[in-house]
Input
Amino acid sequence: MSKSADDKNAYDALIRIEPTIAISHISITQQCDNYRFYVKVPDIIILADDNAISLLSERIADTKIPVVFLGLNTNPRDHGLQAYQQFTGILERPLFKRSLLLVDCLLPGNEDTKLLILSDNSETARAAFGPISPDFKPIKIGKLTIAFTLTNSAKEWKQTVRDAKKAGYHGIFTGLYHTLITASGEYMDSEKIIAWTADHAPLPHFGFWDFTVGKRANLGGYVLNGYEHGLLAGKLINRLLAGEQASQLGYVSDSKGTFRFSLSGVARWHLSIPKEIAKKADWVE
Output
């Protein structure tokens, strides 16, 4: 599963809530220093993640075109968005406490449960997990101990996965995995790294985002839902199209998650999902 799947979920939600919108989709990378608009001037601009906001917000602010952002894990102030009156959008935060409670429920029998959050060391990951532990040192919540490993080294990632059980962990949260680099300096394909993790992990592994759950991916979790995230953004777009000003709308925090599980993942780890959770969950292969 890849983050592009999450983008598609958000896109589908936007189309559902306002089918008359014509959306031009432009993909950018950090190398797009000379990026310019090559489409006709839009009525609204949508920025879909931290990188897009970081790279383009200042330039777009000069256009005075209303902007709706989504998928922002960092603080809006980090990008100076508070100075841009035409910006509104959706803040994305991992549903940390609810996720921990779920895993604590699924991995019973341990007086002290030790969990590892493993993620790439991207700006998005640091923004997502920094509020939990600013220096990424282990934290204690009740009987749970949560440690963090953030790395952009594919070699270190794989070694951390292999050693997780020997290190005393009972489960792994696999966060983001999109900026891992091989020894030769090449970026690893995100779908390949999560599939490798699923094949080699010695422990059950869970996710915080819906696009990380599936066959040969994380087995499940209480996750942020890209489709619901897109619906929230779509509602802001409708209000802008109806004549409201972005400065009146402010920012919306996406705090609604979804139970999501992989049938094959749950079967592999012989987990028993409580009936009240199983009935509400989204199940995927």
